[in-house]
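Re: your question from the hallway

Yes, I did run it. Sequences:
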Amino acid sequence: MPVSSNLDVDVWRGGARGAYQRYQVPRQDSQTVLDVVTWIQRRLDPTLAYRFACRVGMCGSCAMTVNGKARWSCRTHVAKVALDNRLTIGPLANLPIVRDLVTDMREFFDKWARAKGQFSPTATRRDDLARVAPASSARREIDAAIECIGCGICYASCDVVAWNPAYLGPAALNRAWTLVNDSRDGDQSARLAAVAGDAGCHACHTQSTCTERCPKLLSPTASIAGLKRATARAALKGAL
Amino acid sequence: MLWIAQRATAALLALCVVVHLATMIVAVRGGLTATEILGRTRGSVGWATFYGLFVLAVAIHAPIGLRTVAGEWLQWRGRAADACCVAVGVLLLALGWRAVAAVTL
Amino acid sequence: MTLHAWRHRDHPAYWASIVHRVTGLLLALFLPVHFLALGTALSGDASLDGFLAWTERPWVKASEVALVALLAAHLTGGLRLLLIEFVGWRRESQAMLLAAAGGATVCCALAFALNLF
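Structure:
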């Protein structure tokens, strides 16, 4: 396949009722999709709105839809995805569009809070430090899921989020799972109640697109399966 | 809750379906006749119990699944949707047990 | 022009969930028909025999094979889900579980089809 020196890049412009606009962008070595978007905004159209911060794959701010899949634009090499010199870049799916490539992340984080994705301490400064064995099964479950930086890629990739507006989503549930396993946390029964039901873990159909796309190689699928077991156990004990 | 009911009936159905599939695969050899089917099932307490339970499990399992699909693909949720799913369950139970009676009594 | 016209859903677990849903829907639609057919025995053996004679048509036989495939697919997919939900999700076993489900489905459909003739 001949590699031309120019890319045909379709970028979403506008809000929900916007349209793709095409730009010609010269190819460069080791070019990333973030490089492409930045080039467009600096040289062709300063009105293009997009988010980024670290540009080295640590913060998750640059998540957008590239050729149909949610990715970090700073870690997506053009050479790997623009197989026919074409790129289609859009905002993350399943979220309201503010403008162009920027989405309103409020609902994503609101659901995080609704899933009780925050730590509820039980100890005070006067207590001894908590002892958590790193090799314990609970801590290993937490370790496998704790590295989430809230980029929204899993949320944007989930069909159930699209089909069920109330669904809390993979990221929020994944975080809740890490807290369910945290022996120091004091809000377990409220958390299990929060993640159960039609809007919670039971709405997950194990499509596993979240796990496929997560740039940190986490598995919300596994975490949500864990939540299903934990909530079932609680329900059978009458504790839910 | 619904999820537990669906997974529990799923486990039961897994067993029932394996038996049913095996029976069908064997029974269908050389063609199917009423005499052959009814010869196996008529007056059999075993088959009556088996299929009676099978139908009950299906009548619980299927409507719960349909309820989810209605909510996600038709955006139909709430009491009317739930009532409709219960109705489907009742219908499956009625038709199913009628069929069981038809071949075992 | 809508934004979410197409999304690359190119991984096996996604299609497994769609197959599971569609087979479930089709089976749910089929069941009342199945129950009604068996219920014809209430009017006597001859009635059931009459119905069974109708099923000798080739397209009906083909549909029966398809139904066996639907049932086997829904069952094996469901067993895979039960394993994931109750035993746990492991990255290494996903492909194998899907392959096993697919293989078992094909075997059942074939066994049925071969016994038809």
